Amino acid sequence: MKNKIFTVSNILSLSRIALLLPLMIVLFATQWQHRRVYAIIIVVIGMVTDSLDGYFARKFNEVSELGKVIDPLADKICVAVIVVVLAMLGDIPVWYVCVVLARDLLIFIGGLYVKRKKNIVLASMMSGKVAVVFIALTLTFALLGNPFFARAVQLFLWISIGAMAFSMYVYTRRFVSVLRQGREE
Fold it and tell me: DSSP assignment of 93-160, as one string?
């Protein structure tokens, strides 16, 4: 299955990127009273497709080199767009955007480096997935834009920072190990 492109899991990964246009339109181009609710629905659909793509990849034996790239890339693109939008709306601090983008950029560059040096495509790790869950919770509460949820935004913001720091540690250890040994543990 390594070379198959059009699989259910890959299409689900790509659909997350396709959801960004409606999200941007809902948040910026409309004045709908409940536009944030629609935005959250779009984000939740993206989170569900993220869960389903991995499930289908394993269930139907569709794990592919392309899938190992587009799944985390779709996550990174979606998170980047949403954090930038929320910062522009004043719902999250700019420094948080910088932390999220820097982490994702470093992981992406590290993965490209390992691919170039060792011809290995590294799959996402559980610590990274956990960090993304906490980032998603932070963004979801921030999307609500309701002062009632301000404490939840702050709580998940700091939990996600801790999860991102831990995932960076785990990813860095794996990158170094793979570069030394030439294979994934």
Answer: -HHHHHHHHHHHHHHHHHHHHHHHHH---PPP-HHHHHHHHHHHHHHHHHHH--GGGHHHHHHHHHHH
Give the three-class secondary structure for 182: coil
- Mind listing the pLDDT tens digit for each residue in 120-150? 888 778 898 899 889 988 998 998 888 888 8
pTM here?
0.80
Quickly name the fold that domain 8-181 has.
Answer: Four Helix Bundle (Hemerythrin (Met), subunit A) (1.20.120)
Q: Is the pLDDT of residue 170 over 90?
A: yes
Token look-up 């980032």 returns: 135
3-state secondary structure of 10: helix
Domains of the chain, residue spans: 8-181
